[in-house]
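Now for a typical sample entry:
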Amino acid sequence: MRLMSLILTLFVGLSLGLMAAPARAEIEVNVNRGDVQPLPIAIPAFGGGQVGADIAGVIGANLSRSGLFRPLDPNSFVEKGLTTALQPQFPAWKQINAQALLNGEVTNENGRLRVSFRLWDVFAEQQLLGLEFTASPENWRRIAHKISDAVYERLTGEKGYFDTRVVFVAETGGRGSKTKRLAIMDQDGANPSYLTDGSFIVMTPRFSSTSQEITYMALRPEGSSIYLFNLETGRRESLGQFPGMVFAPRFSADGQKVAFSAERGGNSDVFVMDLRTHTSTRLTADPAIDTSPSFSPDGGKMVFNSDRSGSPQLYVMNADGANPHRISFGEGRYTTPVWSPTGEFIAFTKQTGGQFHIGVMKADGSDERLLTSSYLDEGPTWAPNGRVLMFAREVQGGASKLWSVDVTGRILQPVPYPGGASDPAWSPLLQ
């Protein structure tokens, strides 16, 4: 599967000669507060017909799902026909209590879309951002995601996460006859496509943080294998045959290695393979079950799951296997750890009190917080800015679905993919 061609031209100011204001916005969203009130933002349909309206709609949906912004009802807009060539009538936007205003225009020049937009601080009556993007017409959604990221970053001070994709396991059929296919979609559930045909079971797909490449486990009657799949070229590569079962592959921070768990003689340990030489090194040698390794962003450490203390707990060791030590000490069972892209947190699945939870803790095991609770929540994955987690949730007797939650635990919502799904993995920002 090839990525659609996209070329984005980014300008600091619009061709009008209007530059983005260098000062920080007077309006600013504090993403670290658990009680933050969503910022009211007006997003009129961009000029340029239906595609302009569609782009504005995607931007509004992205910002709304973040939980940090509240797009206002277009029926409340007083000023009509706003263009990027003129300054808005600010009193008309103050009248509906819009704190921010985003307007734009779309033109089609020689078969390419040109989208310009301006972001305004309504009460300060100043421009905060003015940018222009160009792309092929079929990539209008990516332009919308790029604009969403630019607005999010300008108003929060953190990188956005909207121009990304999610690889996951699409599930169809009932218990005992379930088909599991490798699938991929935009982070907002759009453009789903399927990378395997369902003739074998796929599990634990994971993105490389440095390229559009994924690794996953394939389970066939003759055994399990780990594969690499390049999304740009469509090339699929097996990492070789392993005695026993192999589980939970995950890339290193630099994309040069894959860590995984392998079962040999009834014992599961963590291994790492150098993708340049295809040589494997065993990192743990304990009679317990060691699995689900995840590298720290700097590549120097690894968190993994082990029951060597009698129940599944989280352990951290050096990337070469030295100095393994336990970091989880709360009640219950801890599984599926994953280090955040910022290095600050480790997310995990926790089972306690008859419920499953998605939680986070500091890398040293301190400041543990449970963000969700349900019949079955499992398998967290981080957005590339380390602000949002996606995971699989199953209600009793129902299908597994994808959900997301932010690190405060306040913004919990289903991901707009209609089918059954599990094992999500978030991509880095697209280039």
User: Anything to note?
Assistant: Residues 288 and 310 are 9 Å apart (CA to CA). The first strand starts at residue 39 and ends at 42.
